[in-house]
Amino acid sequence: MASLSDGSPPDSTIATSATPTGAMPQIHWTTPTLLFGSLLVGTLFALGHHLFYASLDGKAAAAALEDHHLLGMDLSSQQINTAAGTAFAFLVRACLTWSISIAWFQILIWTVATRGVASTKLVHLDVMTSALHDLVSLVSLGAWLRRPWLWILALVAWLIPIASILTPATLSVGIDFPAPIYMNVPNVDFTSLNLAAPMAAGNDGSESISFHYLYAGPSLSVQQITNVVSAHGTIIPVAAPSVNSSWDLDFHGPSLDCAPVAADFRQMVLANVLDYTSSLNTGATPNRSYGPGYISWHPPSMVPDQPASSNLPFVLININSTSPADNLLNNAYTSGLSSSDMASVFLATTPTLFSSISNEDYYGPALCQGMPWYSATLAEYYSTSTVLRCDVHNATYHTTFNISNSEQTVSINERDLVDTALITIEQVSANFGSSNQTHPDLQPQPCSTESIGTLNASAYNSSLNCLFDAVVLSTISYQAIMHAFIELVTGMIALDLEPNFDTVITSTTQLSNTVLAEAPELAFLQPFQLKNGNTTMSLQERAPLWNQQPYAGLVNAAAAPNSTLPFQQALEQLFENITISLMSAPDLQPNSSSIYYPAKTKVTLATRENIYIYAAYKLWLAYGLAIAATALIAVCGLAAMLANGASFSNSFSTILRLSRGAQLDRKVQDADLSGRAPLPGYLEKATVRFSQEQVLGGDQKRGYTLVDMQAPKGV
């Protein structure tokens, strides 16, 4: 029989002993550090995952455009954020799994080697060592019947990675409205000189350092906007911050307040109009009839508490040569308007004077005193006429702008009027110095703040020291808007029958070019094509009167008024629309360098956009359960480590050292020494016993058992 190198026979069981050279077993610091360090790092990665998703919550999610490039790949922001979330989940799972694997090995050593277990079946030991990476091992109930608590820990360890699947899904992309933001919105700077036309100096400044500047009407932008709005009747769209947005805007601005005049003054106005008409019809031209249907006027000097007779539309200079007074607002200013003039206008409709009768030879006014075809009565004239007075007031507007798909809607929620009507300003003074020093070279000395104030009769006061009057600026702006509005409505529309029976429509107003002509009180104007100046009735205007063929149907009848808004309200609404439409003009916007620059307004952006939606509670529910379960297993691992009196690393060298002292109740055949799968049947029932003294250490000697591998067949 051959012998081993030490002289022992190969087929005999020989026990040798060796004195251990290692130190007594102890808990090395690396194992508990890695056990709880990996748990802590995993918790920190979970916190980082939460903070990353929280930073995206509510933010706009860019469209899935390939706007990033990495390693030759085109990636979108959504893809990058999703990948980052998945990476966080992977790192959390890796750290928690690491902590569990360390704890599991300590528990396994305690279970099979140090808690006094006589022996463990080899197949059961296979099941327990592979429990963390082989799911099938969990159904090998034979290995777990005596260790159910260990099976529960293994099951929990398998469930923990589910958190890494659920947590990336806590960030999703949804459609929502973005949060309101504060930003500058279109407005109009009434506290500026932008709304008035250039104001020329009224003096050369050689006698004083105070310059006087004369009001000269509205600016070009105000005139253009007034004309556009009056023609269409709608508010001009503003430059919205977004195609779908809304905001509330409160601002101070002018407002037109119209009301019927007092009964006694109404009687005076209608009598004055009738006297004027009668003077033309019965004076020097007895065969002429003249019927005004619309009249609007602004008296040259319209001051408070002046006699009512001063506010009448016509001044009868001569019974045979009376003509309508030309009282346009700008003419009143250039002819020496008093600074106490009121920004007001009168309007009257007299449909009875304008209504007509017709026959083959005549088409003219129905109310012509002294004419044989006279058909209307004075009672009808007084009952159907309307006389209004409109004044400009300072008001506070409460408005809501809503832009939907670039379509603008403006709602005036409330309008608070100041009781006192606006008093106009004829001229202003601008003081450029703090003393009454003269400047013969006409170059005024500048000062830090330009002083703007109403001119009074007193001499220049050097103590003003560059005072600034903001009310004067807003007053000039308001009267400029009213000026442009009055230029639209003042004048007259009349039906005139010349001595030769030639019928003429006389119009000296722009009213017919505005939406005001659609008011019910002016419905009598609809059959006529009105133009400024004297215009005889055109062929199209006469054709509807001819009902016989072939003339019938040559001209469509004039469309009926499409507005049911009374004339009084139509005037107020048009003025409101003009005021708000001024916000559409770039040159009327507030200047950012002005001390009156408005604060930013909260704007709600109604544009639906893709945003990130983060469900934080779902993430922490998943991570919380996973971290708590891992912590529980880690504590069990620490307890096992303390019970073992030593720490063990899950490495091959540890397995090798443990196996050298293990006792197997079956001999392993030479053919099975390779360790290849599967486990031979005769070894499935083999039991392994680890020496408790070997694991815990002690004073006794420990040795290795060499087993004869030539076991009989069938064992």
UniProtKB/TrEMBL annotation:
Residue spans crossing the bilayer: 34-53, 83-107, 127-145, 152-175, 620-643
Species: Friedmanniomyces endolithicus
Protein name from the UniProt record: Uncharacterized protein
Domain of life: Eukaryota
Keywords: Membrane, Transmembrane, Transmembrane helix
